[in-house]
Design goal:
The complex is a heterodimer of chains A (195) and B (155). Chain A has nine helices and no strands. Chain A is mainly alpha-helical. Chain A folds into two domains: 93 residues, Rna Polymerase Sigma Factor, Chain: A, CATH 1.10.1740.10; 93 residues, Winged helix-like DNA-binding domain superfamily/Winged helix DNA-binding domain (Arc Repressor Mutant, subunit A, Orthogonal Bundle), CATH 1.10.10.10. Chain A starts with 15 loop residues before the first helix and ends in a 9-residue tail after the last helix. Chain B has 155 residues and is mainly α. In chain B, α4 runs antiparallel to α5. The chains are: A mainly alpha (195), B mainly alpha (155). Chains A and B meet through α2, α3, α4, α5 and α6 of A and α1, α3, α4 and α6 of B.
Chain lengths: 195, 155
């Protein structure tokens, strides 16, 4: 039926051309494999970006529909993940605009403006699986979204600075600066004998 | 060693984590960390932040994949169906226009009291050629969509 075969977990960088072809042809088999492989990563990214769990599943669903509609814009020449996360970011930005909660435009003036924390346990507190993660949860909750975003893309998705810059639409130097500031905000949790 | 040097090595620690530094820089950093307790603590704390960030596990809703796949299948089918119907309509219109010209061209010329060639030109201009253009445009729609998407993705 198909001249190629994509199975769950078997999508690697060398498959980018097959992914591009599958998306161009709106091939449901390819989409299924992509959903299986990337769903939890997309959900994780959106939670980091938005700082909440509510509504993230709906946004993930909307993102995959956008992947289907705009699949032809992926050329298969570069890695798939940055393209996917860029779409996820656009969906999140649209949602934020609708809700008028906060902007992802950071002033990048060297300060991390704290975001008001609620009394309810944050998704980070609920998702902490290690002691170190538990210590970071509260600080992550109050960290500005752009810094959380840079941290998750670098340290959980293992994307390069160039790839992150392409996703967030900012210069590489800005992305690096966001990572430094994010680390600087979280580091005190493990400094000065508190570790 | 003055304070600026420690600051420099702490900055190198951040750079090493963020994007990697050159081999020479990495070697210098290692050598410094072996002899400087303060910078070592800074380095260890930074690494624990990264380890902590990797220690979050977000579970997607179990039913989410099924919901997403179901809506993707529906949407893909809708798109295919729309494409097929639109193409079929364009084919029918093109053939219809040609048929009208062949079968009723003379009749129309006499009714409107114009020349046969004028009827043909009118049908070609307002019916057959536009239908043909729509038919030929369909394969180009994904390319047009691609250009539009690129513009839109610049947020």
């Amino acid at each position: 039926m198909f001249d190629y075969e994509l199975t769950t977990g078997a999508l690697m960088e060398s498959d980018t051309r097959q992914i591009a072809r599958g998306l161009r042809q709106r091939d449901v088999v390819v989409l299924e494999a992509l959903v299986e492989q990337y769903q939890h990563r997309v959900v994780r990214y959106l939670i980091y970006l938005l700082g909440r769990r509510d509504g993230v599943d709906d946004l993930a669903q909307e993102m995959w529909l956008r992947v289907l509609e705009r699949g032809s814009s992926y050329d298969g020449e570069s890695r798939f993940e940055p393209w996917l996360f860029r779409i996820a970011r656009n969906v999140a930005v649209d949602d934020l605009r609708k809700r008028r909660v906060f902007s992802l435009d950071s002033n990048d003036d060297g300060s991390c403006r704290p975001v008001a924390a609620s009394d309810e346990p944050s998704p980070f507190t609920l998702a902490a699986r290690t002691e170190d993660a538990g210590r970071l949860a509260r600080s992550l909750e109050t960290l500005e979204p752009v810094y959380r975003e840079a941290l998750v893309l670098r340290f959980q998705e293992d994307l390069s600075l160039q790839e992150i810059a392409a996703i967030v639409g900012a210069p590489v130097s800005t992305v690096a600066s966001r990572i430094y500031k994010g680390l600087a905000t979280l580091r005190p949790q493990f400094e000065g004998g508190s570790a | 060693m003055n304070i600026d040097d420690h600051e420099r090595f702490r900055r190198m620690t951040d750079e090493s984590l963020a994007g990697g530094i050159a081999d020479d820089g990495e070697r210098l950093l290692r050598e410094h960390l072996d002899t400087c307790t303060g910078c070592r603590e800074y380095h260890d704390a930074s690494n624990r932040v990264v380890a902590g960030l990797r220690g979050f596990s977000f579970e997607a809703d179990a039913s989410l994949n099924a919901r997403v796949l179901s809506s993707l299948r529906r949407s893909a089918q809708r798109g295919r169906r729309r494409w097929v119907w639109s193409s079929a309509a364009a084919v029918v219109l093109t053939m219809g226009g040609t048929l009208v010209d062949l079968r009723f061209g003379d009749l129309m010329a006499s009714v409107f009291d114009i020349q046969r060639m004028q009827v043909r030109e009118g049908l070609l201009t307002f019916w057959i050629v536009p239908s043909l253009c729509v038919l030929m445009l369909f394969p180009l729609l994904p390319l047009l969509g691609k250009a539009g998407t690129r513009r839109e993705e610049r947020i």
